[in-house]
Amino acid sequence: MPTSTPAEQNPVDPAQLIANPYEAYARLREAGPVHRITGTDGLPAWLVTRYDDVRQAIADPRLSLDKRNAKPGGYHGLSLPPALDANLLNMDPPDHTRIRRLVSKAFTPRRVELLREPVRKTADALLDTIAPLGRADLIASYAAPLPIAVICDLLGVAPDDRRDFRSWTDALVAPDPARPEKTKAAVRSMLGFFTGLLAAKRAVPADDLLSELISVRDDEDRLTEDELMSLAFLILFAGYENTVHLIGNATLALLSHPDQLAALRADPGALGPAVEELARYDGPVPLAIRRFPTEDITVGGVGIPAGETVLLSLAAAHRDPRRFTDPDRLDIGRDASGHLALGHGIHYCLGAPLARMETETALTALLDRFPRLTLDAAPGELKWRPSMRARGLVALPVSY
């Protein structure tokens, strides 16, 4: 091990990191750059909290996403079958580079822009449904169904074939330790769904991303079968899960800051840049995907042995006053460039242009339709999903 300062030893209460993560992370960040903690799985991990360290670590090739680089007896995480596990979140170059290149053309800004009008039509149709009611849960009625419609259209999943993706993703992101059978059942359901979907697309190809990926797999042999299914799973899972929370959290942030909401209504053209600040302020991913050093390394002056689990706190980095002035204040006029909500370096989110466009379009349609939109509950009554890895509301009651 290189000579380094010891990590701060700080107990981390998972309940605090769910209900009020920014206050808890602020204490850790100011106490030290790296902390030795016990994760929710009961295993030790190293938590990195300061912006410069987090940003550098995200792009450090010595920090591997491949679980085979975890030390024996260390991190085990969610158990997925190879057909769902062989995805970009568990890969390093060169496989990561190869697969990313194959799918990247589906998410270019130009192609995503062609989806803006269909997304707006879907958003308006959802709002048409709830408009007469006067009040609604925006997660269940808007923030959740919009991204799933978009990603299913992209993949080529027919409306009649769409399943209860939210219950599946809930079981994976926030598993109930008292009911492990729910997670196992969700995994079986997803595996069965994608197996059937790929078979149907092979039989009747169409003009969609999944048919295109199958063609790459079958004709050019550049994807293994597990890689193909895992990629379809990841596009659906990440494209849905993160965008739901980005829309929901952004809406709550605006409703909780009437001055910022008023400024946005006065200048709708500011919504594009405002999405960056909203992603920084309360993004959907508090922690980057766990990493494993392939050699002994030093982060923030703290030595971390090879094979240990490293957690990079995006939530802490985004509120680091060393990088963002007055970071706990929502300011839609802020230059929030450099935020890490959508990744960094080779692990920058492939779907970032789509997530941005969906969020901007969803908020535009919502604010256009409901000029009197207000939160229909006390902020303290809102419930957050019980996960340290996903920051999202269970429900967002509003009136209009």
Automatic annotation (TrEMBL):
GO terms for molecular function: heme binding; iron ion binding; monooxygenase activity; oxidoreductase activity, acting on paired donors, with incorporation or reduction of molecular oxygen. Signal peptide: none annotated. InterPro entries: Cyt_P450 (IPR001128), Cyt_P450_B (IPR002397), Cyt_P450_sf (IPR036396). It holds the Pfam family p450. The keyword Heme applies. Gene3D superfamilies: Cytochrome P450. Keywords: Heme, Iron, Metal-binding, Monooxygenase, Oxidoreductase. It comes from the Bacteria. Belongs to the cytochrome P450 family. This is Cytochrome P450.
